[in-house]
Every structure is written in structure tokens, then in C-alpha cells.
Amino acid sequence: MERNSQPWEEAARGQAKELGFSVSKDKNGKVELRKSPRKAGNSIVLPFLWEKKSWGDCYTRIRNIYVYTTKGFLLVEAADLAARKAPAISRDWTSAANQFKKYKTNAENAIKISTWDHDYQPVISMAIEILQSKKPPINAKALILHCVSDWRTGSRMRQIRVRSLSQFLTFCVEDLHLPDVWEPPKSQKVLIGVTKPGETISQKAHPFARDEDILNLIDSLPTQEGESSDREAAVKWKNATMLMAELGLRPIELNFLKVKTNEISGDLYWWCDYCKKGGNGATEAREIHPLPLIEADGSICNWNLIARFRANDLPLPSLDSGNGAGECWKVYFNRKPFWKSLKKRMLEQEDRRLTSYSFRHSYSVRGTRHGIDSGSMALSMGHNLQTHLLSYPWAEKSSTAEAFATAYKKIKSTQTSARRT
Hints:
By secondary structure, the chain is mostly helical. Helices cover about 50% and strands about 10% of the residues. Helix 4 (about 95-105) packs antiparallel against helix 5, helix 6 packs antiparallel against helix 7 (about 155-175) and helix 10 packs parallel to helix 14.
């Protein structure tokens, strides 16, 4: 007991101690509230005089402050919130964002700058602007919901924004030691939401309806028409498109394609050195298994690609300019009448959206149609099984119908055999 301490003062100190605080009279005669550990932000002078008649109201305020501290706020932040004010503490969010960018592009499964610019920069910049406003959100959930409110629930872009901003805030808490109140919710489903009834989220790309459409597109290229430069460009884009179709490649993987020799059998095989990096980790370099297209008459389309590639008889276009290989493919083909007509017809007649990734989706469907299991398809395509099942039309209706038809034939055959015995 302090010298000349009154009974109400000892009772006040005891009440504060029960909540994990200590209280005393400051030099101006007001209540000073402290919380362990001793560090910036864990001491505050409350707007109450250190006197018996004020203690009841002061203790009520302290209890409200306690509630906010249990949610991860520093004492000074909790005091402002208990007083129904926005936290007064100033944070250098811009510096935090710069540190996070350095971490994402240089550490662990480092992402490309283009990925940062597309997936992270927009939403983090928006968050910083909101956090520096006069009435900023007071926790991670409120901030994230504010930043994604313009995007439809369940949409792909809303998903990207939620995940990117959540990663940033987790970094701030775990690496920069911000209060736990900025830790995003463990489950992101409540933030991403689901598609509302009557709304559909368009898939970025769909497979071609038939191999014939791919073959007609390739044949439409002006390899024998126009100026020599136009013919040369058409040949290169034809080669690129044939590789994308038969190997299910991402456009960028054309730059990482090789032919290797099996040391035991002596057979040639395709190899891709490309490793896609992202928030879920990096894919590994891999062997790729070709899946030839089928002609309209049912014959296998033999382009002899691996031998031609090895003999340097498969020139490819430059894919390093602009915004990447996919954009290069798009720019060239969007000037071609057949491609524009095919895209329009497929969208209108079958609600299919065709892009350069449609060759990859068709490869997935073709593999399933030929009975290749999803795990093997995922390995050849360079992603994990979960991504394959979620993102690729590996069980398209036509393939599913064929699978059930085959199963029905087996059942019928078994029943016939049973009757005979």
C-alpha cells in the first residue's frame, strides 16, 4: 500500500490489476493507465481526475478499453476506440507495402514483377489510401471488405484481391509485429463470398468444341499468301499454335521447350523448364506428353513436331515483347478473320469463350476422353491435382457421357455372361 493511500485508491488499483492494467495519478492529477509489456503505445492518460467520485466512470472506460486490447489493439488504440474515436496512432503503411513487395519478389517462391503489378499492387495501394483517410477501418476484416466491395461476390478478381491483401496483412502482423487486430480471418470464404443466384462467373477460357475447329484455325493462316514477311510470320504462328494444341502449353512455355533423350530407351521426349510461381507455390520443370489431335475422318493428326523441333525446322515467333507471350498470340490472331469469326460463333452458339488458353483446356479434355487419369494429366500440364480438378474441364459432358456409356457396356456384358453360365 502506498503512503497516504486511501481505501478507494487501493480498490481502484485492484480492479485495474484484475484486467491486467496498472493505474496511478499522473502529474496533472489525472488517471494514467498502463499495460505490460512496457513499450510505445502501452501507456495512456485518461480524461478522468484521480478522485473517488470520478472512479466509477473511469473504471467503466477501462473495462471497455480492456475489451479492445483482447482483440489485439495497443493500449492507446484501444483507448481511442473506447472513446469512440478512430485509433490515433500513425503507421507507415507505405513502408510496410514496400517491404512486402521486396519479400514477395525476392524471398521464398518469388513472384514476377508482372504478377505483383496485376495481383497485389492495385488492392494494396487502395488499402493504404483507405488506411490514411480520416476514418479508416479498425481491423483487417473491415479493411478487406472495403477494398473488394466493387467486385462481385465469388468472382475471380475478388478472390485475387482478398488473397493478395490477406497475405500483405499477415506479413504486417507476423514480420512487422503489428497488433493481432490486423490479422485477416482464417477463412477467406466469408470475404470472397459466393455467386448470387442468377449470376454466373465466366470462365476465362473454354476448350474448343471439336479438334476440327483447331485444325481449321491453323489451316486458315496465310502461310502461302501476301508478302514474304507475312508468310514467314504465319508459318511461325502456325508452329506455335500446333505446339500449344498438341502439348497443352501455356503460351509462355513455348520459350522454355526442349527435346531430351531417354537414356535407357533412346526415345525422344518433350521437356519444359518453365516454373510458374505464385501464392500457392511454384510448379516444377516437367516432361510433357503429346496428345495428337483427331482429324474429321477419325485419323490421328501427325505433325511430326518433336523431330522437326530437334532439327531446328520449327521456327517460332518472338514472344518476349509487350505484356507477355499470351498477349503476343492474342495480338496476332485478333487480326485474323477466321479466329474472330470462330470466337463469335462459339460464344453465340455454345457460350464458349475462346482464348490462347483454350488449346490447353482442349488438351485436358482430350486426355480425359482417352481415359488418362487426372493425376497424370496434372503432371503433364504442370500443376497440382487440386488446380487441375478446379480449373480445367477434365470431365466435360462429352467425356462424362463416354465414360458412362463405356461403364454401361461393361455392366451389360457382365450380365450377359452371367446368364450364359
